[in-house]
Design a protein that fits this description.
The complex is a heterodimer of chains A (68) and B (261). With 68 residues, chain A is mostly helical. Chain A has one domain. Chain A has three helices and no strands. The radius of gyration of chain A is 14 Å and the shape is flat. The mean pLDDT of chain A is 82. Chain B is globular. Chain B has a domain of 172 residues. Chain B is an all-alpha fold and 261 residues long. In chain B, strands 1-2 form a two-stranded antiparallel ribbon. The chains are: A mainly alpha (68), B mainly alpha (261). The interface between A and B is medium-sized, with 19 and 23 residues.
Chain lengths: 68, 261
């Protein structure tokens, strides 16, 4: 878990960082599940592993492709 | 401030912070050591009192429904914020999205992605509805199910294109879902005030433990929150997609504006 978090900080390219953050979200979800908090695990997996990286990706696409 | 001054200042701050953090860690209770009374009380009381087998949902939508209403409005405020930041500005023009334009530049989505994506849409919707509907019985509920339902529409975007996604889920319908869900949840709380005497009082019949239609107002709250969360997430993501895919800065109009000034 801590290793994953460090990877997110160490990934300097925002695009890669979004991907690593997605894996981090998934691992955190699994951690919640292992610690018997399935409700939180479900939200964490859906939001942390899918929705948040997706929004980062869309924002990146806008910032980078904004100029024609 | 030069580097030579900055480093000692940082060192002092770091030692102080480290000391405080370590002191804090030393005072933490052992793992799994729980001293508060509420957890034990709720665990004993939730099943006979509210007919729910998922105590977390009973806390979220009944005992502490008021807090969930607050969270609901945080999400609502975030959606409103995204909508107002990503609105169409002066000096921006709308054009057809890349994957629909005449001289298309976007590469075709591969057949594998399209088939897998379309095949996943129906199961995703089913899982989402299941998780919303079984909120009071199994882990999950309106929020978790709502986010899963929102990904179904994104699967449509992934396997088809932006215009298809807009056709399947028009913004008006999505806004309506968000509004109805949020208002519905607040009204369920108010109905408790009218019928039972307290905000979010669970006044409906509780049914038998383990039934789909048990636990009084909890399934209704779950459905309302599910609707609001689905609407909110889909709305935010389609706003982002709309902004990314169809809006460009209009250089011509800008230049003209500058000249007229």
């Amino acid at each position: 878990m801590a290793g994953c978090a460090t990877c997110v900080v160490l990934a300097r390219d925002p695009l890669r960082q979004a991907m690593v953050a997605s894996i981090y979200g998934l691992v955190l979800g699994i951690l919640f599940f292992v610690f018997q908090a399935p409700d939180v695990a479900l939200s964490q997996t859906a939001v942390g592993a899918v929705a948040l990286p997706l929004m980062i990706l869309l924002a990146l696409a806008k910032v980078r492709g904004g100029e024609e | 401030m030069s580097d030579r001054v900055r480093l000692p200042v940082f060192a002092v701050a770091l030692t102080g912070l480290l000391g405080l953090v370590l002191w804090g860690f030393a005072g933490l209770p052992d793992f799994g050591d729980y001293a508060g009374p509420y957890g034990y009380i709720l665990n004993r009381v939730a099943v006979p009192e509210r007919s729910t087998t998922d105590v977390v949902t009973a806390v979220n939508f009944d005992y502490r429904g008021f807090d969930t209403l607050g969270e609901e409005f945080i999400l609502f405020a975030a959606v409103v914020g995204v909508a107002s930041i990503l609105r169409k500005l002066r000096g921006e023009r709308t054009r057809p999205p890349d994957d629909d334009a005449a001289g298309r530049r976007a590469p075709l989505t591969s057949l594998t992605v399209r088939v897998a994506g379309l095949g996943l849409v129906a199961p995703t919707i089913l899982v989402g509805i299941y998780i919303v509907g079984h909120g009071q019985l199994t882990p999950g509920g309106g929020f978790q199910g709502g986010v899963i339902l929102a990904t179904a529409l994104l699967l449509i975007y992934l396997s088809a294109d932006y215009m298809t996604m807009r056709a399947v889920g028009p913004l008006g319908v999505i806004e309506l879902a968000e509004g109805l869900g949020g208002a519905g949840f607040a009204l369920i709380g108010l109905s408790g005030l009218v019928a039972g005497g307290a905000f979010f009082q669970n006044w409906l019949g509780k049914g038998t433990v383990g039934d789909l239609m048990s636990a009084g107002t909890i399934p209704l709250s779950n459905a309302a929150v599910g609707l609001a969360v689905t609407g909110g997430f889909v709305f935010m993501l389609s706003e982002f997609l709309q902004q990314t895919l169809t809006r460009r800065r209009d250089h011509r109009r800008r230049r003209r504006a500058r000249r007229s000034r």
